[in-house]
Specification:
Number of helices of chain B: 11
Strand order of the largest sheet of chain B: 1-2-3-4-5-6-7-8
Strand content of chain A: 5-15%
Largest interface: A-B, 38 and 42 residues
Number of domains of chain B: 1
Order of helices and strands of chain A: EHEHHEHEHEHEHEHEHH
Structural class of chain A: alpha/beta
CATH class of chain B: Alpha Beta
Number of helices of chain A: 10
CATH architecture of chain B: Alpha-Beta Barrel
Structural class of chain B: alpha/beta
Helix content of chain B: 40-55%
Largest sheet of chain B: 8 strands, parallel
Oligomer: heterodimer
Order of helices and strands of chain B: HEHEHHEHEHEHEHEHEHH
Strand order of the largest sheet of chain A: 1-2-3-4-5-6-7-8
Amino acid sequence: MDFFDCDVSYGRGAIALPREIETVKDLVAELDHSGIQKALVWHRDACERDFDAGNRRLLDLDAYTRLYPTITFVPTCCEEMLPAGEFVKHARASGVLAARAFPTRHCFALDPVACGNLLELFAACYLPVIVPFPEVPGGWQGVYQIMRDFPRLTLILTETGCWGQDRYFRPLMRRYERFFITTNRLETAGQLQSIVNKVGYNHIVFGSGLPRNYAGGYVLMVYRAEIGEEAREAIAHRNLERLISEIAW
Amino acid sequence: MDGQGVATPCLEMEGTMALSDLFVNGGGCPIIDSHGHLGPFNGIFMPEAPLEKMIAGMDRDNIESIIISPHSALSGDTREGNREMLDAVQRHPGRVYGYCTINPNFAQDIEGEMNAYLGRPGVVGMKVHPSMHAYPVDGENYRPVWERAHREKWMVLSHTWGADGGCGANDMRKVAERYPDVRLILGHSCYGAFDKAIRLAADFPNVYLELTAAYHVYGLIEWMCRDAGSEKVLFGTDYPWFDPMVAAGCVVFAHIETREMRNILYNNARRLIDEQAARI
């Protein structure tokens, strides 16, 4: 079975990890070891150092046809980035398949006032926006507000927590067609099966969080969950492939 | 064993296949979960919380045995929880083992609870949770627990987190120094202070690292095996909290030898349980 991972990163930061993935070559080796064929990639610098420095690092990916860059954004208000329209054109020209945001770390509000120009454009061209849940200001109330403000936005929420937070995210899955969570820390026993049975499998995409997490843990979870093969394939790769195929620049 | 779904041990299936391949293909090897619970818990949607669902999940995931402390013993009336523990142990002998939970906030109960449960078939040790019970692990009310566990060589699973705060690595070191014969299991391996936990397990022959919640940290399992030895690492998942296959996946995809994976998944806990049974 193929796996398409929406959440892997590489690069050395200031804080050492127990096992580092410093280079794209290291990353490819670990993806192979874990049985993952394709990935949406970001560089640690994009979160921990500076969004633009991280984005520039993604030129490293050019030699690898199985790795796809994701571009990190901040609001355009300080003119640190290109204007919204130009930014989207740049993303398209760079082969970007998703945008990524770290609002808490980068000190901004993911709302219409600060980011409306960008998020409306992302929504219009179906470019997925990937945000770690711990980075969302206001926690789950913040997630609810983002979806109220941008109901057509393709939001992929990662790191929703290992402690069955279904009471928060299942209503969003039922209400918003383009709200997604990833497998990264979605690890309450029986949770994946329960979501598939009660809500369906269309709102879950595979994301490992490598190198914060062992990717193999989530690979094995998907293989061994008591769900049908159609659901298994959808979660492992097809849902993310579908989202990518819908991007309309 | 009363389950129908437990796979054939991998000793018979293994050829040249990696253990990870065996697990991916629906097999694997027997597992013992040394950090389990039972029943619902506030704030968390937990689909496999009831005992019979846990047994079904264990069958599904090749979990031969689990050692539990019910949630009711941790967040409710501990006496009620310990009765629930014994009931589960007696319903599923060999599948479910129990920890007698000790609540230091009711010091008057501690001696009676230890006398009521330690020595009963299937009760293999004690569980303390200094965080939930808001009482430091080296506090006076825990003293009878540590003294008895030291004297009789009981396993004690303690929730541990960080370096300090009542159940951190520095707190646990005091216990290990004072009571070296306790089979001291560091639940969660002092999450966030892994260097200190690993050092503790390396320094004391009867201190063990336990993987619940910590298993996901990329590179940690290799680190534990390298600096403390795979013989000092126990598999655990807080089941029914966490999916045992996520944790098993982290072990079998770690960059360690198959022998080390087997120690973690099964051999170490088997040895501790068998040694405990032999002492009773």
